[in-house]
């Protein structure tokens, strides 16, 4: 794993964690595109793992069964922020992983330690490759706390539950906001309460409440924070970037 001592001086890693429906994905993609960075959606990796389990008739509520199969799926993440991709065993599954059945099953799969360990390895590999260039924005629920705690900037993105539900309902084509809010809050409870890599604000993370802002305004705030993080680097490091 790269460390502050051997990471290229021009590279930067931005860790974006937070609750479902808070705007993490849109914010992370937009900021990465504006900053010329790569982008990784770790949630898509967990969804791809979940879709594999469902497609192979593995009981997603049987942790032992999920653990026994966690090493089998081949998951590949494309990191272009303007067109991120997710492939499972060589096939594009960008549509399948957003289905209702995956939505209902991803939490128990994500809670299995063997799944998290397998995907943690893959996530770190993607970050390592991105460090050969300008760097990467990585979004999820444990990026700053577990996946890459040495990130140059850690963000914890939240929004008011009603605002989150309204946004997600709109994304889903007019779903009932009340039921969406209940689903989001249930997901938060599971993610925050799991024993392995729970959803938490990482040490040193900047809390960003997106409730009163437009997407463009939130992206602008993130870009400013990244520029400040770069400016705060030691002079000797900046001189070689």
Describe the model.
The chain is α/β, with parallel strands linked by helices and 241 residues long. The protein has a single domain, classed as Rossmann fold (3-Layer(aba) Sandwich). It is 49% helix and 15% strand. A five-stranded parallel sheet has the order 2-6-1-7-8, with helices on both faces. The protein has a three-stranded antiparallel sheet with strand order 3-4-5, covered by helices on one side. The two termini are 20 Å apart. Mean pLDDT is 87; it is low at 1-8.
SSE layout:
Elements (H helix, E strand, L loop, with lengths): L11 E7 L5 H12 L2 E4 H14 L7 H7 L5 E4 L6 E4 L2 E2 L7 H11 L2 H18 L4 E6 L2 H5 L5 E6 L2 H11 L5 H17 L12 E4 L5 H17 L3 H5 L2
Parallel strand pairs: 1-6, 1-7, 2-6, 7-8
Antiparallel strand pairs: 3-4, 4-5
Helix pairs in contact: 1-9, 2-4, 2-5, 7-8
CATH H level: which superfamily? P-loop containing nucleotide triphosphate hydrolases
Would you tell me which CATH topology applies? Rossmann fold
Tell me the overall shape.
globular
Instruction: Give the tally of structural domains.
Output: 1
How many DSSP-defined strands? 8
């Amino acid at each position: 794993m790269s460390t502050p001592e051997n990471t290229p001086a021009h590279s930067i890693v931005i860790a974006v964690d937070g609750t479902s429906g808070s705007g993490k994905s849109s914010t992370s993609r937009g900021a990465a595109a504006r900053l010329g960075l790569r982008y990784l959606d770790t949630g898509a990796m967990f969804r791809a793992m979940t879709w594999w389990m469902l497609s192979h008739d593995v009981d997603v509520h049987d942790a032992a069964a999920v653990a026994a199969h966690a090493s089998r799926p081949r998951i590949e993440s494309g990191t272009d922020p303007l067109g991120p991709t997710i492939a499972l065993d060589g096939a594009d599954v960008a549509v399948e992983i957003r289905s209702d059945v995956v939505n209902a099953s991803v939490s128990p799969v994500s809670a299995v330690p063997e799944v998290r360990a397998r995907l943690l390895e893959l996530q770190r590999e993607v970050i390592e490759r991105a460090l050969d260039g300008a760097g990467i924005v990585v979004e999820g629920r444990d990026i700053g706390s577990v996946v890459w705690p040495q990130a140059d900037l850690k963000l914890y993105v939240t929004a008011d539950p009603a605002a989150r539900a309204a946004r997600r309902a709109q994304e889903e084509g007019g779903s009932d906001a009340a039921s969406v809010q209940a689903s989001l809050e249930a997901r938060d409870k599971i993610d925050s309460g799991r024993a392995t890599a729970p959803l938490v604000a990482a040490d040193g993370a900047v809390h960003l409440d997106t409730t009163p802002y437009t997407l463009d305004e939130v992206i602008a705030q993130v870009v400013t924070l990244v520029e400040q993080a770069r400016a705060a680097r030691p002079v000797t490091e900046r001189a070689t970037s």
